[in-house]
From TrEMBL:
Protein source organism: Dictyobacter formicarum
PANTHER family to which the protein is assigned, alphabetical: QUINONE OXIDOREDUCTASE
InterPro entries for the chain: ADH-like_N, ADH_Zn_typ-1, ER, GroES-like_sf, NAD(P)-bd_dom_sf, Zinc-ADH_QOR/CCCR
Name of this protein: Zinc-type alcohol dehydrogenase-like protein
SMART domains per the UniProt record, alphabetical: PKS_ER
Record keyword Transferase present: no
Domain Enoyl reductase (ER): 13-335
Keywords: Metal-binding, NADP, Oxidoreductase, Zinc
Residue stretches in coiled coil: none
Family classification: Belongs to the zinc-containing alcohol dehydrogenase family. Quinone oxidoreductase subfamily.
Length: 339
């Protein structure tokens, strides 16, 4: 079957950084589904894993952790899906990614594709939606009951990106006052179209901008861009006993002691934790994706697809990686249709 992968970790402008491959079709065992891939999306995790390094692979490394497709076969222990079911999922970073015509994935982290969406629209959602949901409701422990969140606020740093585009929608649905960071007219508009009540500029100090909006502090902060860069601003603007969650690794130590006077909480969100460690609640990702599908089909949440690319091949995938690395994308880019 066709796939796209790498043997060497190279700059994206090198044609060997991602190459077209022919690999064997895997066989599903246990709780695995064999999915015929219809569409894929690209996330920063793809570019980070692919980034230049001395390591070389003996067998091809397949990336890709956003898939929408059709179940082709099921393992003997599968109970949640059957052949022909339309699905969407992010998969596991510990296994080969979904940049292949057929892909193995454990059913407990797979959701039924929203009926109202095309495969391309659905492929834009899994990784970012799971990250946003887990960050807001599992890590920050925000209630999903809008009435209980009356008067509470959240600052979402990077509101126009892939995760931010979902997080703003979910936070708005949860009844929070949502302040997103954005700096360009198009990203400001995108953030407001996706649930942000207000925006501030992440290139300027947060405190004065929040005061201009009538806020002395915020109850929650969800950091989706440069934890290092925004740390002092987050410490300054988080409310006493507030909570901060970040998805972006640091390049040096953080001064956690700065949060002590406020008894503030700092917590990480890594969407692959459940599948990487096979946690006892791993099936929750299946449940989250199914719940999100219901919310999408009822019009409460919308896809964040902004660009479609066809077909799925190495040249097109390299071009999309390059766009993500440039750092100016809004929403999600999806590739569809293997030749």
């Amino acid at each position: 079957m066709k796939a796209i992968g790498l043997y060497r970790y190279l700059p994206i402008n090198d044609p060997e950084s991602l190459i077209d491959l022919e690999i064997d079709t895997p066989t599903p065992t246990g709780h695995d589904l064999l999915v015929r891939v219809q569409a894929i999306s690209v996330n920063p995790v793809d570019t980070k894993i692919r980034a230049p390094k001395p390591q070389q692979e003996q067998s091809p490394k397949i990336l890709g952790w956003d898939v929408a497709g059709i179940v082709e076969q099921t393992g003997p222990e599968c109970q949640l899906f059957k052949p022909g079911d339309e699905v969407y999922y992010a998969g596991s970073v510990a296994r080969p990614g979904g940049n292949s015509q057929l892909h193995l994935v454990e059913e407990t982290i797979v959701g039924h594709k929203p009926k109202s969406l095309s495969f391309a629209q659905a492929a834009a959602l899994p990784l970012t939606s799971l990250t946003a949901w887990e960050g807001l409701f599992d890590r920050l422990e925000i209630s999903k009951d809008a009435a209980s969140n009356a008067g509470k606020s959240i600052l979402i740093i990077g509101a126009a990106g892939g995760v931010g585009s979902i997080a703003t929608q979910l936070a708005h649905f949860a009844g929070l006052k949502v302040i997103g960071t954005a700096s360009r007219p198009e990203t400001i508009q995108w953030a407001k179209d996706h649930g942000a009540d207000e925006t501030i500029n992440h290139h300027q100090p947060f405190g004065e901008q929040l005061k201009a909006l009538g806020l002395a502090s915020v109850d929650y902060i969800f950091c989706l861009n440069s934890t290092d860069k925004h740390w002092d601003n987050m410490v300054d603007t988080i409310a006493p006993q507030g909570k901060i969650c970040s998805i972006v690794e640091t390049h040096g130590p953080l001064n956690l002691s700065a949060l002590q006077p406020k008894s503030a909480t700092f917590v990480w969100e890594f969407m692959f934790t459940r599948s990487l460690f096979h946690t006892s609640d791993m099936i929750k990702q299946h449940q989250i994706l199914d719940t999100l599908a219901e919310m999408i089909d009822s019009g409460k949440i919308k896809t964040t697809l902004t660009e479609r690319v066809s077909p799925i091949n190495a040249a097109n995938l390299r071009a999309v990686h390059a766009k993500l690395e440039a750092g100016n994308t809004i929403g999600k880019i999806v590739l569809e249709n293997f030749n």
